């Protein structure tokens, strides 16, 4: 497997050193940046497979940096923050983050979470297309090999977690998924997230589809969970 390149962005040199050591021990290639502006330049010059992005930084904070990156790229982003407030978690996920870890953190857990995200976005070697690689539902088409999807022939860009959630629903379009079921199907290695995190991802998916004219991609079944809508 090709060695994965991780961009680590944090204004604390000790934290950069700790993360770099852990990732290199896991046989990943690491580059670093001190703040958001330096991160944007680094990613433009040499794109990474995943970005570990601190939120509280000088010059340009992690949230603003993420917004800029999301204008042109869906590269997975894992946020780091010294604040454990729910509003920060939700905001980070809603603007395009794939995961959120608070400081202090376990380097081993951080590596595990990064591996989970990378596994979901692992590039698959081109093969002859078969029907089980393409999932359709009304005007919605999802290609699991290309990691791409369209609604009414218009491409929709989702993060790795959002893509995994929608693919899960497409495989069982009549099922109502509880939040626990969505978590188990979209996250691996026993990574647990809160109900609010799942809700944030669902809102983000709805918002992206609304922008291309699909205003009811996922329905809420109150007291139960979520299900795919008719997508007509």
Q: How many individual domains?
A: 2
**CATH architecture of the largest domain, please?**
3-Layer(aba) Sandwich
Number of helices: 8
Which geometry do the CA atoms define?
Answer: globular
Largest sheet: 5 strands, parallel
Terminal CA distance: 40 Å
- Contiguous runs where pLDDT drops below 50 for at least 5 residues: 123-131
Q: Tell me, what is the CATH class of the largest domain? A: Alpha Beta
Mean pLDDT: 83
Q: Helical residue percent?
A: 25-40%
What is the string of SSEs from the N terminus onward? EHEHEHEHEHEEEEHHHEE
Strand count: 11
**CATH topology annotation of the largest domain:** Rossmann fold
Summing up helix and strand content along with how strands pair, one would put the structural category as alpha/beta
Strand order across the largest sheet: 2-1-3-4-5
Query: What is the fourth-level CATH superfamily of the largest domain?
Result: Response regulator
Radius of gyration: 18 Å
Strand content: 15-25%
């Amino acid at each position: 497997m090709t060695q994965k390149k991780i961009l680590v962005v944090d204004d604390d040199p000790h934290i950069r050193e700790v993360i770099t050591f852990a990732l290199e021990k896991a046989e990943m290639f690491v580059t670093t940046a001190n703040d958001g502006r330096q991160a944007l330049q680094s990613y433009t010059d040499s794109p990474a497979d995943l970005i570990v992005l601190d939120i509280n930084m000088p010059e340009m904070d992690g949230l603003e940096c993420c917004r800029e990156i999301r204008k042109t790229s869906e590269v997975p982003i894992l946020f780091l923050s010294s604040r454990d407030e729910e509003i920060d978690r939700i905001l980070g996920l809603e603007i395009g983050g794939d995961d959120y870890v608070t400081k202090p953190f376990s380097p081993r857990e951080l590596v595990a979470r990064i591996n989970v995200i990378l596994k979901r976005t692992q590039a698959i070697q081109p093969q002859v297309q078969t029907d089980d690689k393409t999932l359709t539902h009304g005007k919605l088409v999802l290609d699991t090999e290309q990691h791409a999807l369209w609604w009414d022939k218009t491409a929709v860009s989702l993060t790795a977690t959002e893509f995994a959630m929608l693919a899960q629903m497409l495989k069982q379009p009549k099922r109502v998924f509880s939040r626990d079921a969505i978590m188990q199907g979209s996250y691996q290695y026993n990574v647990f997230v809160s109900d609010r995190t799942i809700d944030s991802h669902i809102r983000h998916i709805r918002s992206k589809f609304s922008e291309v004219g699909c205003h009811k991609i996922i329905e809420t079944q109150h007291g139960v969970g979520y299900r795919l809508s008719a997508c007509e």
